Amino acid sequence: MMDRRKFIKMNAALGAGQLLNLQSAAAADPTGGILGSTHFPAKAKRVIYLYMAGGPSQFETFDHKPVMEKWHGQDLPESIIGGQRLTGMSANQSSLPVAASPYTFSQHGECGMDVSELLPHTAKIVDEIALVKTMFTEAINHGPANTFMQTGSQLAGRPSIGSWLDYGLGTGNPNLPPFVVMRTKGKGGQPLFARLWGNGFLPSEYQGVMFRPENDPVLFLNNPGDMDKTARRKVLDALRRLEELNQQVVFDPQIASRLAQYEMAYRMQDSVPEAVDTRNESKATFDLYGADAKKPGTFANNCLMARRLAERGVKFIQLYHQGWDQHSNCGGGVKKQCREVDQASAALVMDLKQRGLLDDTLVIWGGEFGRTAYSQGKLTKTQYGRDHHPGCFPTWFAGGGIKGGTVFGETDDYSYNIVSKDRMHVHDFHATILHLLGVDHKRLTFRFQGRSFRLTDVHGEVIHKILS
Predict the structure, then answer these.
(1) Does the structure show a pLDDT above 70 at 457?
(2) Which of 11, 109, 368, 463 could be disulfide-bonded to 127 (CB atoms 3.0-4.6 Å)?
């Protein structure tokens, strides 16, 4: 007869062993994800997500509202606000005066899409993009809103989009991380936290890898000065044998994750320096991306790097560009931000297209929420600010499976409310991304604390109207 202690220990070992086998499947085959294959034919093989952290104003970019010029300086009608929540930064203002944008809009491309004068390069690619004017979220502050956009939950602890894709689909190149993150150097604004590209409750080998603009792109990638590649290989082989023995005793799933990360780091020692070396890029390519393309850490250089990583099979590449939180001097601030990202964003789409990569690369541009039609703080002829607005904001898509030249959704005369049935919630956004990659968002799950979790929680619908 088995005593209670032995029974518990045996069952714990069996459970841990099964979990370890499941979680280390991708480690055994570094190119394969847990799904084995897509649920249906994929239109995109990879994603490049250009994330404008801080919340770009729709009024100065993609949502033309000429009616606001007539109301400039007058209080935004209460019927428009409709009791919606305001942040503490403007809720106690004595008035909420409408602030019309000083920038002009023109129609571009065969589709006739309205684009602000601040985005002349993006205006050249409108026939390649699907502009969603009616993204919306429940989050009204940066921390929860950014976390929601990247993980599908306003609360920290869930896996990010790239981690889910790595877990489910694996990679096209085992020598590079499937999920790479880059930030524009020297940008201030709301802080970015590692949880935005974290693995959450997934095994740690699925977290995003940050590429830095200076010195070594990845920290601790190079061997110590007194160790060569052969010695490093011997150390890793010996460590693997020790950990396999340890695994038989402690049944720790993290052992397989650590070993997978060690092996990835070893392979990256050769692959990363080659991937980030842009010296062989042509003058025409640098001219396409703009004057900053040769400066490491700029948004232009990061876009060029994103194209190089996409060529080499990286599954999910995310570029963060901070500084869009325009609570004051919105007009001047957005003008500067657009100047920093406009040419390179458009160049990335054009570069991918001319190399035959756009058809199976999904490019996304957007932030975590929009801005208010009313001015935060005092409104003058030359100065105005805009507070956070989660009710509607623009995001554009291009490439793999997207119907170019499409405008999805309509907002009211103040871009404060959505007035059409065509709308895209954060969960719909994630469901659509997964769909384009051949994944049914309801079937990519991970069992954690007695519940099966997924990126879209218990919501989400694929937005077919923007798909080709």
Answers:
(1) yes
(2) 109
Q: How many helices (H) and strands (E) does the chain have?
A: 12, 15
Secondary structure letter of residue 377 according to DSSP: S
Cα separation, 420 vs 400, in Å, equals 26
Asked whether residue 40 is assigned to any structural domain, the reply reads yes
Dist CA 57 CA 228 (whole Å): 51
Please state, in angstroms and rounded to a whole number, the distance separating the CA atoms of residues 307 and 202: 27
- Residue among 322, 338, 282 nearest 51 (CA): 322
Q: What is the overall mean pLDDT for the chain?
A: 91
Spatial contact of 360 and 43, defined as CB atoms under 8 Å apart:
yes
Which residues is 136 bridged to in the sheet?
425
| Sign, Cα dihedral of 386, 391, 394, 399 | positive
- Residue 1 falls inside a structural domain: no
Task: Enter the tokens of residue 408.
Answer: 């999805």
State the Cα–Cα distance between residues 320 and 142, nearest whole angstrom.
14
Output the domain CATH number for residue 410. Answer: 3.40.720
Q: 132 vs 65, 102, 129, 420, CA distance in Å? A: 16, 23, 9, 12
Residue 187 forms part of a structural domain? yes
Q: In terms of residue numbers, what domain contains 452?
A: 33-466
pLDDT in tens, 417-443: 999 999 999 999 999 999 999 999 999
Structure tokens at 372: 């208010």
Model pLDDT, residue 228? 82
Rg for the chain, CA atoms, rounded? 24
DSSP letters along 397-456, please? EEETTB-TTEEE--B-TTSSSB-SS--EEHHHHHHHHHHHTT--TTT--EEETTEEE-TT
Residue 5 confidence (pLDDT): 57
| Residue 404, CB-side half-sphere exposure with 13 Å CA sphere | 19
Position 207 in a domain: yes
The string of pLDDT tens digits covering residues 56-69 is 999 999 999 999 99
Domain tally, the chain: 1
